[in-house]
Design a protein that fits this description.
The chain is an alpha+beta fold. The chain folds into 2 domains: 99 residues; 120 residues, Immunoglobulin-like, CATH 2.60.40.420. Helix content is 43%, strand content 23%. Helix 1 packs antiparallel against helix 2. It is elongated. Bound molecules: copper (II) ion. Copper (II) ion (CU) binds next to loops. Copper (II) ion binds next to loops.
């Protein structure tokens, strides 16, 4: 039989090793496609922090589980009941305090502080306003400053702050541009806001994350409620506006 110190030592070593491997993986491997807006960088930054903090917690649970399963596995039927198990008060209190402190920490940073930062950006004066109308199952985008409206594509100039004023004509939809990482519900009867500063030229044809995607189940063709997004230079945007105006 082990002396009580040995299992603790093995688990601690296993924990340290798994944490190290996990953190290396978390730093090296980025599961997200490159963001194409300032807001996207903030959101990805938050996700990465959550991952770095979650790795040691997950590694600890796996280490204890792995050690217990391998070391204390049953060999045939048990001859009698084991001794009664008593709660390890200090262990429970430590686990509770550490995980509660971690949860509170990530709720504040990057949670609440990141949210305040994103909200503050939404209140800055926009360079461009785009009204977004969701309906089953398409998106109409209107540029009120230029008197242009289309349901073919969302074209945006790079490096400019865009405010999206979002609403719905029928049921609840959700306006989501994966490349920008911004998302806001489209609710009938009210206007909701979100904003983004696109930082990278691109289009749906080259990168599928450049699209408006409905993110709230709204019926049969919900998954196909997609509007291509194209981020272009200011001159190209002006030229596009001019052709759209001619067409109307
Ligand atoms: Cu929808």
């Amino acid at each position: 039989m082990d002396t009580p110190k040995r299992p603790v030592l093995v688990v601690v070593l296993l924990w340290a090793t798994l944490t190290l491997l996990g953190e290396i993986l978390a730093v090296r491997y980025n599961p997200f496609p490159a963001p194409a807006a300032e807001e996207g960088e903030r959101i990805d930054h938050a996700f990465r922090w959550l991952m770095y903090l979650a790795v040691p917690v997950f590694a600890f649970v796996v280490s204890v589980l792995l050690y217990s399963v391998l070391r204390f596995r049953a060999h045939g039927p048990a001859p009698q009941d084991g001794p009664p198990v008593h709660t390890h008060g200090a262990g429970v209190a430590t686990w509770f305090l550490v995980t509660a402190a971690l949860t509170i920490t990530i709720s504040i940073f990057p949670g609440a502080l990141g949210l305040i930062d994103i909200r503050r950006r939404e209140h800055q004066d926009p360079d461009l306003i785009v009204r977004v109308d969701g309906m089953r199952w398409s998106w109409t985008v209107t540029y009120p400053q230029y008197d242009v409206s289309t349901l073919q594509e969302l074209v945006l100039p790079v490096g400019k702050r865009v405010r999206f004023e979002v609403t719905s004509r029928d049921v609840v939809h959700s306006f989501w541009v994966p490349a920008f990482r911004v998302k806001i519900d489209a609710v009938p009867g009210i206007v909701t806001y979100t904003s983004a500063v696109p930082t990278r030229l691109g289009s749906f044809a080259e990168d599928a994350t450049y699209r408006v995607q409905c993110a709230e189940l709204c019926g049969t063709l919900h998954a196909r409620m997609v509007l291509p997004v194209r981020v272009v230079e200011q001159e190209e945007f002006n030229a596009w506006l001019a052709t759209q105006r001619k067409r109307q």
